[in-house]
Write a structure and sequence with these properties.
With 131 residues, the protein is an alpha+beta fold. It is built from two helices and four strands. Strands 1-4-2-3 form a four-stranded mixed beta sheet. Helix 1 crosses helix 2. The longest helix has 23 residues. The N terminus is likely disordered.
Length: 131
């Protein structure tokens, strides 16, 4: 048995950033956080308050489906990201410095075969950087 040093050696790969697979969806043309989304965000907030994640900041990425103009969808996606950020700050006292709201518009569809699908009207929370 030997240890090879090279690109394919999994021991040398960088550690993955913390992430979660949670889909926060919105009604059509709305940036209002639904009661279901609040339940999911309550879980996210508990994780964000965990000391193991204290050194991380997060991008809250808003998305829109492709109906409507690109400009309108970009604004709507930004409003969605901001509403989620505000909920986490106001309802759970998550430090606002750790959360950055980013509108991504309609460029990254999860379900391109069904443009109006709810999963295309979403917010995702992605690890940004260490402090």
């Amino acid at each position: 048995r030997s240890l090879k040093v090279g690109r394919d050696n999994p021991v040398l790969k960088p550690a993955r950033k913390p992430s979660a697979s949670l889909l926060i969806t919105f009604e059509t043309n709305s940036s209002e956080v639904t009661s279901r989304a609040r339940e999911q965000l309550d879980i996210v907030a508990a994780a964000l308050r965990n000391e193991k994640l204290a050194e991380y900041s997060f991008n809250i990425e808003g998305h829109a489906d492709p109906r409507g103009s690109s400009t309108t969808n970009l604004t709507l996606s930004q409003l969605r990201a901001e509403s989620v950020r505000q909920y986490l700050v106001d309802a759970h006292s998550v430090s606002p410095e750790r959360l950055r709201a980013l509108g991504k518009g309609d460029r990254e569809l999860l379900n391109p075969q069904v443009p109006a699908a709810p999963e295309n009207r979403r917010v995702t929370i992605v690890t940004n950087t260490t402090k």
